[in-house]
């Protein structure tokens, strides 16, 4: 994902009703939305954000929160009452209709909730329609459209009409049309909300794959929190026309800015949103391979633990060594620590969801190691940290946060895990919070 900015919204207001600029002035001066609503509808109030190139930016809110009006201001379909929209460095607010159309043609494609396909055109011709509008020659647009139709899973359906397709397949045609246009930015307004749950999840997964492959910037509107958490790199939460928080899924889940957001996220499956990187702790029980057995024993003694992690050159994760094995090396005057290393069996990357760590954590008495793509040790996740994250309990204070734990992590599951812990041999490694115990 690039750090350059694809879309900027700056202090956007949209008021539907009489004397809109006066209504904006009153809102800016602190009058409440309810009072101003007596003369019309304040649909969007002082919305500001930036969307980076190559990210999926989700705008989430309940019906009436202003999210659909907001996305229509981003592509010039609705003119803001106040504020500016910038697309790829071009300010479209106040621009001529011809200029706005040119920016849309060059930079922005839209995928609609109800597909918006041309019923008399085939799948291929619908996918190629945006290229036709751009004036692309027939042979070229057919080739480009055919490639994306196949990529979205509609190979063999090119000559079918929309009426012959299921809802999920029709939405794939809409997505193919947007991709064929080859614009850098995709705006998707409740694009999957009309689909059955299984098809919807499949489309969400495919969208993530396509975004990674085509490196598009996607602004996605949804009222579904789980959908937002699943696909979004960052999420803007809207309420009554205002953006009340912008952050990553993890930030919104673990540090809600308002009581409204906290209530919104309380039923989220934390195990599928939080990642290993978000809960891992620094490793204190750590020794370099070249340091030798005596150094390993010294770390174990200082931290009052019976095992340490071992890293090689460049902090590459090699495994763990235990006190009894290291003592044997010391007695035999053997400096080769590598001979007693237990090879890593439960390392994960920072992007791994907590739901995928549960089994590994239960089966091992040792913390789960977190590594990067080059096998460098980044941190560890002790079992108590994992359980605390799933139950929204602080592992440093033991206090339960005000946000209730996700119901998908049941008491029975946590109890079974604790019982499994008690039946396993001791030897858990010390992490940053445990050295003084």
TrEMBL record:
Entry-linked PROSITE patterns: ABC_TRANSPORTER_1, ABC_TRANSPORTER_2, CBS
Keywords: Amino-acid transport, ATP-binding, CBS domain, Nucleotide-binding, Transport
Biological process per Gene Ontology, one example term: glycine betaine transport
Domain ABC transporter: 25-265
An annotated GO cellular component: membrane
Domain spans labelled CBS: 280-337
Signal peptide residues on this chain, from the entry's feature table: none
Superkingdom of origin: Bacteria
Similarity comment text for this entry: Belongs to the ABC transporter superfamily.
Annotated protein name in UniProt: Glycine betaine/L-proline ABC transporter ATP-binding protein
């Amino acid at each position: 994902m690039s750090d350059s900015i694809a879309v900027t919204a700056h202090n956007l207001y949209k008021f539907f009703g009489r004397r809109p600029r006066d209504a904006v002035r009153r809102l800016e001066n602190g009058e409440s939305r309810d009072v101003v609503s007596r003369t019309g509808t304040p649909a969007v109030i002082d919305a500001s954000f930036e969307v980076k190139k190559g990210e999926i930016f989700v705008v989430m809110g309940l019906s009436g929160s202003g999210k659909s009006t907001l996305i229509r201001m981003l592509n010039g379909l609705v003119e803001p009452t106040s504020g500016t929209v910038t697309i790829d460095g071009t300010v479209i607010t106040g621009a001529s209709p011809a200029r706005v159309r040119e920016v849309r043609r060059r930079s922005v494609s839209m995928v609609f909730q109800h597909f918006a396909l041309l019923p008399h055109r085939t799948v291929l011709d619908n996918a190629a329609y945006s290229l036709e509008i751009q004036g692309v020659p027939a042979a070229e647009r057919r080739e480009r459209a055919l490639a994306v139709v196949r990529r979205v899973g509609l190979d063999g359906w090119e000559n079918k009409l929309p009426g012959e397709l299921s809802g999920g397949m029709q939405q794939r045609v809409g997505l193919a049309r947007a991709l064929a246009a080859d614009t850098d930015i995709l705006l998707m307004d409740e694009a999957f909300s009309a689909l059955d749950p299984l098809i919807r999840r499949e489309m969400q997964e495919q969208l993530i794959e396509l975004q990674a492959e085509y490196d598009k910037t996607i602004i996605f509107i949804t009222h579904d929190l789980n959908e937002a958490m699943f696909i979004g790199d960052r999420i803007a939460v809207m309420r009554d026309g205002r953006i009340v928080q912008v952050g990553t899924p993890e930030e919104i889940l673990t540090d809600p800015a308002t009581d409204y957001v906290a209530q919104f996220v309380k039923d989220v499956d934390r195990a599928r949103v939080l990642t290993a990187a978000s809960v891992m702790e620094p490793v204190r029980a750590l020794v370099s391979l070249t340091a030798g057995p005596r150094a390993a024993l010294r770390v174990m003694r200082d931290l009052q633990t019976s095992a340490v992690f071992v890293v090689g050159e460049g902090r590459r994760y090699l495994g763990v060594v235990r006190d009894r094995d290291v003592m044997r090396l010391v007695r035999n005057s053997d400096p080769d620590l590598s001979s007693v290393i237990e090879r890593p069996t439960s390392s994960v990357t920072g992007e791994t969801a907590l739901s995928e760590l549960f089994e590994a954590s239960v089966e091992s008495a040792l913390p789960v190691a977190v590594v990067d793509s080059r096998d460098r040790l980044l941190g560890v996740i002790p079992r108590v940290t994992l359980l605390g994250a799933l139950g929204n309990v602080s592992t440093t204070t033991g206090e339960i946060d005000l946000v209730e734990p996700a119901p998908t992590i049941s008491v029975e599951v946590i109890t079974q895990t604790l019982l499994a812990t008690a039946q396993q041999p001791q030897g858990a490694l010390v992490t940053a919070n445990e050295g003084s115990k």
